[in-house]
Amino acid sequence: MNPDFSICVYCGSRPGERPEHSQAAQSVGRWIGENGGQLVYGGGRTGLMGTVAEATRAAGGRVVGIIPKALVDKELANPLCDELHVVETMHERKAMMGERADAFVALAGGIGTFEELFEIWTWRQLGYHDKPVGILNTAGYYDTMLDFLAQSVREGFMGDWQMSLVRSGVEPAALLRELLEEARRHPRGDKLAEVL
User: Fold this and answer.
1) pLDDT tens for residues 2-47?
2) 57, 101, 54, 92: which is closest to 71 by C-alpha?
3) 119: Cβ–Cβ under 8 A, 6 or more apart, which residues?
4) Are 86 and 67 in contact, with CB atoms under 8 Å apart?
5) In whole angstroms, how far apart are CA 88 and each of 10, 44, 48, 58, 73?
6) Strand partners of residue 133
7) pTM score, whole prediction
């Protein structure tokens, strides 16, 4: 199968306390699969990571997992991926995920998810890529972060143009459609290999 598009999903290796997060991960994976797409993700089978991968696969989508050696056992590397890449470092993992994706979306997660989101957003700001970046704000999970980001603009540490480089939404299909439409409108020249 040659996928029509490729979306990188950042999300937690834990399921979280609220069922809405697992439901959102299922919705994202199902949408990718049902629309002929490919999931690029961190390669684990635990938590929301495992949920989004299984939902993509069950809906007929292609799954590409990228995981560093140090996390193969901890995050239980997913042998059901169509491609499972075991790499040496987190930096290599993130760069490969970036290269393989047309767009990026962050679901609920912890410090690793935050770091991946902020790095890919920073890379866009610096011109390493110009691919769309989104935040799925399920059950208000990112409300306080988005408020803080707005405060950083008010305080003069960021500009409105930086905030315009990331979208947020609460409905999975709508946000994914927006990201994919933006990616298709503007074919992207990608320089992510330069940050390796």
Assistant:
1) 899 999 999 999 999 999 999 999 999 999 999 999 999 999 999 9
2) 92
3) 94
4) yes
5) 19, 15, 23, 29, 14
6) 104, 166
7) 0.93
